[in-house]
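Dear Dr. H.,

I hope your travels went smoothly. While you were away I took the liberty of generating a structure for the chain from your last submission, since the lab meeting agenda had it listed for discussion. I wanted you to have the full record in hand beforehand rather than looking at slides cold. The sequence, exactly as received, is reproduced here:
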Amino acid sequence: MAAIIAASAGAGGSKLTALPGLLALAPPLLRAPCRLAWAAAGALVATLALILPILLRGQFGALLRGLFGNVGLYPAASANAHNLWWLVTGGQGTRPDTTALLPGLDYRRAGFLLFALVALPTLALLWQRHEHDPTLPFVASAFLSFAFCMMTTEVHENWFYPLFAPLLVAAALDRRYRPLYAALSLTFLANLALHDPPLFALLGDGILTPARPLRLLNSAAQCAILGWWAWLLFGRVRASSAGSKGSSTLG
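The corresponding predicted structure, in token form, is as follows:
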């Protein structure tokens, strides 16, 4: 599990885009110290293998600066990511994320707050249910990565793809996530295509007019996928809990 997520983190480049997904490891691993040690070792080996070219070129310092200097580096509501803030700004993603949403609350702080409101119940669910559902850590890892990209500011369009590694495992284990994987693959591809400079150069400036509403439509679709995913994640638990209570009553 840790090796898969570490690999997806490396795929994300010199950004901490996979860190939210790594939070999903905490509840199951904290209850199993030996498993934690093996997971840490696997993640370390995978990470070292991925950054070996950077180490050989003596660019480790640049990597660290890229990793930990993210917040405020691109202070925009959305750096071309089709997320909540692309919708809020009506497609004006370059609007500063220090713009006030409410008194004392700007876009950036609101984004972190929204992510925390999603992450906390997800981690609580993991703590309670991971031993009963082997798919849950993979689903939660991908879900947290997606929620982070959808709810925080300064997100680029390519920040989504670390989530596909754990989601692929979840889809293989649980068929309910296969349609979601397919839908998210399409919206992610659309997000990349609708901001691709070579594609726009090939098609000409005339493509900009239809691209603008399509970007908003795709943002709405990704917000809908986030809601669908939350329903899949938490709805099954409610159904399982109701079934367990029913069985106890009959017993």
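Two observations you may find useful: Residues 2-236 form one domain. The longest strand covers residues 100-102.

With kind regards,
E. W.
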